[in-house]
Write a structure and sequence with these properties.
single chain; 8 helices
Length: about 230
Amino acid sequence: MLYGYAHAIGVGAMTTINVALASLLVAVVLGLVAAMCKSASNRVLNTIASLYTSLARSAPDFVWLLFLYYGGQAALNYAVNKISPGRSIEIDSYMASVIILGAVYGGYVAETFRGAILSVPAGQLEAGYAFGLRKRTVLFRILYPQMMRFAIPGLSNNWLALVKASAITSMVSLNELVFLSTAAGRATHHILLFFCVAGAVYLALTSVSLWILRRLNMKFSLGVREVIL
């Protein structure tokens, strides 16, 4: 089946999922921190977060990826050699992909979270403080559960875009779906077949993702009108 490359395609699909999930985790953490900083009254935090989101969205993903994988690694090793001669730090293709995709999409996730935070009525937070709740309790018991209802539709788009953007990691020779599909197509001279298989795998991933996200949306939208993704 698939000229003996079915296993390779499966390995590539699992690598794609792995990279996408790891990058999403980084993006959510960075995005949530940046959103809270941009929503804060502290000018320094606001400026730093705004600068981060602007830089993250200012250039194509593959430009940042190549910058880190080649230029960033050379600069890092130069600095390490200055401190400890003879030592070096290697940033492999997987690490570079997760860092860049996570950081870039963290900028988009930050705006999604910021919009969700602003959608929660300020009076509910003030009511929590009026009842004597601590700030941490207000955040985790009042703000975050309600903001997720507004954030999930935007996060759904971010996730789907991230899954497809993982294809650029083939540029740094990561053994993901597109890289292995291209290699199999060239080896068998059936490039169109393997690109169609890769497209079908992406379609399956996005379809399953949408089903899971709709279930999450229903959970966080109990008692309110459902938001159609």
